[in-house]
Design brief:
It is a single chain. This protein is an alpha/beta fold. It has 3 domains: 2-108 and 235-302, FAD/NAD(P)-binding domain (3-Layer(bba) Sandwich); 117-232, FAD/NAD(P)-binding domain (3-Layer(bba) Sandwich); 322-406, FAD/NAD-linked reductase, C-terminal dimerisation domain (Enolase-like, domain 1, 2-Layer Sandwich), CATH 3.30.390. The protein is 24% helix and 29% strand. It contains 11 helices and 25 strands. It has helices at residues 10-20, 44-49, 64-67, 129-138, 152-161, 184-195, 239-244, 288-302, 366-375, 384-389, 398-406; strands at 2-6, 27-32, 70-74, 78-82, 87-90, 95-97, 100-103, 107-109, 123-124, 144-148, 167-172, 199-203, 207-210, 214-217, 222-224, 227-230, 234-236, 265-267, 273-276, 281-284, 315-320, 323-329, 334-340, 343-350, 353-360. The strands form 7 sheets. Strands 3-2-1-7-18 form a 5-stranded parallel beta sheet. Helix 1 (10-20) runs parallel beside helix 8 (288-302). The longest helix has 15 residues, at 288-302. It starts with a strand and ends in an 8-residue tail after the last helix. Residues 403-414 have low confidence and may be disordered.
């Protein structure tokens, strides 16, 4: 069997591990457009922060490819997928035949059109190791930095460079920071925490006109800057999937085996849609743990398995300047909110199920809440009043504790 993987991030690693769990000898080839061995993208802000280095950013050890007998074409781009001939053509003309193909093509920064942006000389995105290195070269202690986007990428960039520049302004059209993962109360708490680091926010606003070193906002405010970082969002890389005849709808459409609509082609990671069990909708869940799990399922099935990727939920574990956040699931339902100094907890319940959570500050034992969401545990089978305040296994029935602690079979299991 000849396996080809386009992409070299978490989903690709998961795919290799999934294949090797069932097929120890089949040929595996990875094509990656970056020249580096697989690294953890969320760590690029910590590289600029100085709390990690490139060696510690590696998502797997340097010998990962060799140990798993993987041939690599790093620093090369896949230009064409011919699903009829079952070949992948690279930018240097190399043609790779495949029996099974994984599209783990990831996403790219979305840079919206903004008037005068072509005049800005020092402009960057913040998604790859190379983009972080380029930004780092431009930083000086006197730099005034303007970041467009108050989401996860923009704020991780701000955290990474805050101690190395004079000031940071962040502009976003949304009315709050981190709008994709936090409610209004959680967002306000995190914004107040971040603003202590010489970072200013201009929300419900956008750039009307750029000059080389100024941004005129639609509100009329004028912001001077030396460096511009655009972190508005990302778009899935779906061009190869479209070329190969896969169904695409704001992401590559997959079933619960991670197969696309094209024969012998699978997809995983930030380019692929999956089924969000908390909202019962299909959408891209661009999260590293999900990408790895999705890749593992795809790899196992490419090698003849029958695995299902059927417990996908949106989930984020992230921190800014020492204040940590864990969110998961959806926020549609009845909310149970707990406050304490430096702590915010919101649990969302609907139809006797825990559907979502926001934890800020105190994130201990968040895994219990996550498991309740992912496993769709009926709340009337546990002591939820106890778990709301103190997540612990004692809130579960005795048999359920055995299952969680020792892998015991539940009643009715074969």
């Amino acid at each position: 069997m000849n396996y080809v993987i386009i992409g070299n991030s978490a989903a690709a690693v998961g795919c290799v591990e999934g294949i090797r769990s069932r097929d120890k000898t089949g040929g595996i080839t990875i094509v990656g457009d970056e020249p580096y061995s697989v690294y953890s993208r969320p760590l690029i802000s910590y590289l600029l922060l100085g709390s990690t280095d490139e060696a510690h950013m590696k998502y797997r050890s340097e010998d990962f490819y060799e140990k798993n007998q993987v041939r690599t074409f790093l620093g090369h781009r896949a230009e064409k997928v011919d699903s009829a001939a079952k070949t992948v053509t690279l930018d240097d003309g190399t043609v790779l035949p495949y029996d099974k193909l994984l599209l783990a093509t990831g996403s790219k920064p979305f840079v919206p059109p903004m008037a005068g942006m072509e005049q800005v000389k020092n402009q960057f995105t913040f998604m790859t190791l190379d983009s972080a290195k380029a930004l780092e070269k431009a930083l000086t202690p006197e730099s005034r930095v303007l970041i467009i986007g108050a989401g996860l990428i923009g704020l991780k960039c701000a955290e990474g460079i805050a101690a190395r520049v004079s000031h940071i302004d962040v502009v976003d059209m949304a009315d709050r920071i981190l709008p994709s993962i936090l409610d209004e109360e959680g967002s306000a708490m995190m914004q107040a925490h971040i603003e202590k680091r010489n970072i200013s926010f201009f929300l419900s606003d956008s750039v009307a006109q750029f000059t080389e070193n100024t941004a005129l906002l639609k509100s009329g405010k004028i912001l001077g800057f030396d460096i511009l970082v655009v972190a508005v969002g990302v778009r899935p890389n779906v061009e190869l999937a479209e070329q190969a005849g896969c169904k695409v709808d704001r992401g590559i459409c997959t079933d619960d085996t991670c197969a696309t609509t094209a024969a012998d082609i699978y997809a995983a990671g930030d380019c692929a849609k999956s089924h969000d069990i908390t909202t019962d909708t299909d959408r891209v869940l661009a999260l590293l743990p999900n990408a790895h799990m999705q890749g593992m399922v795809a790899g196992a099935n490419m090698a003849g398995g029958s695995e299902l990727y059927d417990k996908a939920i949106p989930m984020n574990a992230i921190g800014f300047f020492g204040l940590h956040i864990i969110t998961a699931g959806s926020y549609d339902g009845k909310a149970y909110i707990t406050h304490a100094p430096g702590v915010y907890k919101k649990l969302i319940v609907k139809d006797d199920l825990l559907k979502g959570m926001i934890l800020i500050g105190d994130i201990k034992r968040a895994g219990i809440y996550t498991a309740l969401i992912r496993e769709k545990t009926p709340l009337d089978t546990i002591d939820f009043d106890l778990i709301k305040e103190h997540p612990q296994l004692m809130a579960f029935a005795k048999q359920a504790r055995k299952v969680k602690l020792a892998g015991a079979k539940q009643e009715g299991d074969a």
